Amino acid sequence: MDGKSLLAILRGVGSFEYQNITVLFALIRCLIMAAPGRLRLLRRPYRGVSEPMSGAIAWIWHRIAFSDVNFFEHLLVRLDLEGPGGRDVHRLLPVLENLLRYCVVTSQEWLVTPNRGIRHPAITCLPKDADGRPLCRLSRSAWQKKRQLGFGDYVPDTDTTFLTLAMARKWLDLVERHNLPADSVLLGECQRILDHPWVEIISEYQVGGPYASNPPTIQITRPLDYEGSVPIWFDKPFQKADGRVIRETAGNEICPGHNMDILDSILLNRVRWRALEGENLAFLHRLLEFHNRAFSSGNFRQETALKYYLPEIYTYYLGRMYQTWRTLSPAEQRALDPAGKVQSMRRIAIEYCAGELLGGTLNPFDAALAVSALVLLGYEPRDDGLIATGLRVLTGAAGEGRGGHPFRGYEWNRMRHPTRILVGSPVSTSLFVLRACAESLRYLYGGRPT
């Protein structure tokens, strides 16, 4: 964090409270980093890549759509594996609908694109009711803490929105495939949120696209080349008490994981959104090339490039996109990727998971991501013991959690500004492990859970 980056953060953030806390934390970090003895007390050694979470007394506990939509996908994989006659369907169905409803309905708010004025919904992490009260079950003291940190006004992010769009599509398809007794009202809401021209909407934000609106204001995820990518926040104006209009409440930067979610969601809904036609296809070409550069250059491994997601999360997201890619017809694949970039990225990601993750010392969260990524990427030979190595880490760590949880909480998503907000919990670790086990069971044995 040099002076130029710090000033860029301060200029890019519209909240004065957040600017003050950013300066304070930056100065504290400078003092700590210059004192190795104090640093060892705060940054204790740990196993693996992702950091164990501690200090739960300082966590702000509330429900957000970002977590719900990810949890939904993990449980959806389990439900799909069980099939319509599975013994846990009656328990999984209401949980899945509860999670998806919170994302698609409760957390929805309306925005207007900054150039063509397209009115569209977006999924926020801080939903409010008609009277402006938070719906995310934040306590009054926790809400005040958020406001004091500068997060009182919150802009919906592109990642949560496009993940929700992907899960809405997957839920509609799964319900039809398995003839599940699903809530018809929720199914209708899924159809409605998918009805908007989402490629045209998100293309207004692309770096190097036809518009130059809402660019990244915090450029600290270097050495990534931003051309073709989409910043993390939508455009949303806030009018302050003194009449000032603020549009970039929490800054705007580039996250490769966010952009992989956008690509996956568009490919899932490619027919409905006419994604492989005209300007929409040009948008996808630029987005795919952004990911290809991140992998071929090796920059996806760089610490500075992953301010939000760890490298193993990015490769796991590539695996999820690769599963969608396999559903494209040969003609669709040629239209999107005539140069074979997807297969090149797949090879690089497999080498990373096999050599740098499973070839090293892992904690269960790392292992779950490595296993899921290898399975989704179609690693061969599947019976050579590599995937089994990751599964042994998972079984060996079972029981490490506290309070009845099978696993500890590990960092999953981090906003590594000087404030360093971590996302993760014992629940999220367990669900990532569940996903890895379910995918492995299907890939290695083609069977159902016992």
Word description of this protein:
- The chain has 450 residues and is mainly α.
- The chain has a single domain (3-445), classed as Glycosyltransferase (Alpha/alpha barrel).
- The protein has 17 helices and six strands.
- The chain has helices spanning 3-12, 16-33, 36-42, 65-82, 89-106, 140-148, 158-178, 184-194, 198-203, 256-268, 278-296, 311-325, 330-336, 341-357, 364-376, 386-397, 426-445; strands at 108-112, 119-123, 238-239, 245-246, 413-415, 421-423.
- The strands form three sheets. It has a two-stranded antiparallel ribbon with strand order 1-2. It has a two-stranded antiparallel ribbon with strand order 3-4. A two-stranded antiparallel sheet has the order 5-6.
- Helix 4 (65-82) packs parallel to helix 7, helix 10 crosses helix 11 (278-296) and helix 11 (278-296) runs parallel beside helix 14 (341-357).
User: The biggest beta sheet, please?
Assistant: 2 strands, antiparallel
| SS-based class | mainly alpha
- Order of strands across the biggest sheet? 1-2
Number of strands: 6
Number of helices: 17
CATH class: Mainly Alpha
Question: Which strand-content bin applies to the residues?
Answer: under 5%
Task: Give the helix proportion (percent range).
Answer: 40-55%
Q: What is the averaged pLDDT score?
A: 87
Q: Separation of termini? A: 50 Å
- The SSE string, one letter per element, is HHHHHEEHHHHEEHHHHHHHEEH
Number of domains: 1
